[in-house]
Amino acid sequence: MKQIKYILVILAMTLVACSDKDDKAADNTPKTNAEVRVLNVDVVLPTNIQQQWKNTIDWAMANIAKAQQIESKQVKLNLRYHDEDTENLEVLAYNLTHPEEGEDTCHAIIGPYYSDHAGTFLSYAAQTRLPVLMPTCTSAELQRINTRNTYAWFLTESDITQCEIIFSAIKTMKGNNVVLLYSDDNYGKSFFDWFNFLATENGLNIVGSGAHAYKSGDDLYEFFKEVAIEADGEMITVCMALSEPNDYLEVSNQIDEFMSDPPEDVEPMFSLFCSDKALSEEVVFSGDMLSFIGISPVASMNSGFQQVYRQRFGRLPLSGEAQLYDALCLIAMGGIHQMTSPDECLVYGKQVVYTKRPFEPGLTDYMRSVVASYGKESGQWSVEGLATVFHALIKDGSANYYGATGELTFDETTSTKILNTNYMVWMTDYNYFGNDFNKKVIPICYLSTSGTGSSASTTAIWERTKNFEQTFETDIEAGKNLNDATDHWAVVISPSTTWANYRHQADAFAMYQTLRQHGYDDDHIVLIVEDNLANAEENSKFPGKIFVERSDDEIIHDDLVNLDVRNGAKVDYHFSDLTPDDVADIMLGHQSSRLPEVIHPTATSNVFFFWSGHGGSSEGPLWGNEDARSYFGTERINDIVTQMNAEGMYRRMMFSIETCFSGKWGEALTGLPNVIVLTAANPNETSKADVHNSDLGVYLSNAFARTFRQYVNQNNQISLRDLYIELAKTTNGSHVSIYNERNYGSVYTNNMTDYFPQ
């Protein structure tokens, strides 16, 4: 697991000395005839956030101007404000990125504040590579989708990191029982997706259903009652990841009321741990809010920014202010670099070249050049430090900038995703009833993923080696005296039908190809997919083709890179033409004029079943897309396999299930003889998409299915245990699980030749 190191609250007096230097202009005479370039920067934030961040905006603008005043070339930032809460964001995003003739060109966008709005601006900015700098957009999905977009600047790590730090802090504070209340939006989704996984990784006990989507006004009485009864008098930490400040107040009031008048024979004990959105004046100064602990991204304690800010303005900076300061400075630095080095834009020593319009490097690329350089001169965020950076950029075209948020280490792919964010764990003191922010908010500690203000990637969790691993018995009697298999049958299903769910059908087609590669003919595979991707309108770049992996290298590899997995596939049924009962008939061999293609296994047949789609927290695999209102059913799948067993329709059977909460089927099938269930997630977890393709704008595959294919193709004799280990290592964000091995046989001695014989 990623190491979380704690930095105790030590406010070094040497750092405060920066405040005196900060306001001193250079002794040199300002240039009155300097060449000045004006950059129009459109600030898209809610009006209340604009006001809360005004101190930082004015401070940064003044420092940027002072730092350049002796230079012969200067950049001036012209800020233009837009209210994120009232503007038509679709129209605004288009207008800023497609200015009409005669209008002032937008050179960069700061904002939006909410992750839900960022996708709109990024989609339009793609056409001109206009830099969009987002101080607070932390949605993990948003950041992953835009991971290769050089104009998408994320200045705070994703909420995967915040979520991990929350659970690490709870564990450190001796917490045990946890539940999550989250907003049903892009912000809350990150916490929901990672809650069960990270709680399990940290050895915390998830109480009741664990996670509950909260909407303003929801009555939480029954939820609190359920978890309080299960906890049986033990403390429960309620993690709140809510988008709106007022929601924290509403939930706090409901907890207070529940604890004041609990149900009979229930002794509730709750503590509150809040995500970064709670660090707002509305929450902190509310007399109704219970005392609680929270976490928020802040400036690096090593930079001195937070200490100087507090001395200058009389309070701690709010979440996002340090990131905003660095955003304004980076735009100015990129502008100076572009102004003074118009013919040379190097990122990691290589000239930036584009093959698509606009062909020439833009402002975003010169900003990338600044953060990716290893110049001889270094400067911090203060006036003197900024002056050093601007002078070095004009003189040598390179410089190192140490920002308010610390050492600005960005990802090596695009140099636009920050790799390390500093966090403050804080608590509220409600013995104090005044309006002094510093007395209301008490810092407990400062921490980061590296502990130093440098170098840990947001992808480190995505690529993590997990701590939790299943253990298996080495000697199991089941399965030792079976007759040899005489034939093999397979059912492959994807219940997804939309372009956004491309990966599910693609994985189904890829599994079909893998089965064919290992000896199955079409008469022994039933393939059920909607088959509407290859010729979809959205597939204009690769018409007629479906991929699970794409590479610029056009060589076709054994692991399906650049292979059209639709080619040659025989689709037996379109998903939308079937019902769950039809699938039961197909598996039970009930052939009819309506269902001509079914399987006909016997007591000496091995049967492989693969399902790739969405799942729900109640019964696992959904019958349809993510908005489906029905499940295939845990009881139904148990009934089908029970009947197959009674009628002698399999020797052995493997279920490989790639959905959220797929462990529900593992539980449902436990107890049946000679059945093994391999799932991408346990019963309480979501499963994560894996391979995103910017050309198609969708995920092509899931890590579970990709790794399954890869290792079976490399070695069909791989043991179930070794396959599990590889899947567990590479399927990130969920715990791959094996079910029912005691009724199947040892995972150490049984291998995949039972289902992939050649």
Provide structural commentary.
- It is a single chain.
- The chain is an alpha/beta fold and 758 residues long.
- β19 (487-493), α19 (502-517) and β20 form a beta-alpha-beta unit.
- The chain has 3 domains: 35-156 and 300-441, Rossmann fold (3-Layer(aba) Sandwich), CATH 3.40.50; 159-288, Response regulator (Rossmann fold, 3-Layer(aba) Sandwich), CATH 3.40.50; 487-754, Rossmann fold (3-Layer(aba) Sandwich).
- The strands form 7 sheets. Strands 1-18-17-11-10-9-7-8 form an 8-stranded mixed beta sheet, with helices on both faces. The chain has a 6-stranded mixed beta sheet with strand order 20-19-21-24-25-28, with helices on both faces.
- α14 (321-340) runs parallel beside α16 and α23 (703-714) crosses α24 (720-730).
- The protein has 24 helices and 28 strands.
User: Looking at the chains present, what oligomeric state does this protein adopt?
Assistant: single chain
For the termini, the CA-CA separation is 38 Å
Please estimate the helix content. Answer: 25-40%
By secondary-structure content and strand pairing, the structural class works out as: alpha/beta
The total beta strand count reads 28
Low-confidence stretches: 1-27, 452-465, 553-558
- The CATH topology label of the largest domain is Rossmann fold
Write down the overall mean pLDDT. Answer: 87
Tally of individual domains: 3
Q: Under the CATH scheme, which architecture of the largest domain would be assigned?
A: 3-Layer(aba) Sandwich
Number of helices: 24
Strand numbers in spatial order across the main sheet: 1-18-17-11-10-9-7-8
Largest sheet, in brief, is: 8 strands, mixed
| Proportion of beta-strand residues | 15-25%
The CATH top-level class label of the largest domain: Alpha Beta
Gyration radius (Cα, Å) is 29 Å
The geometry reads as globular
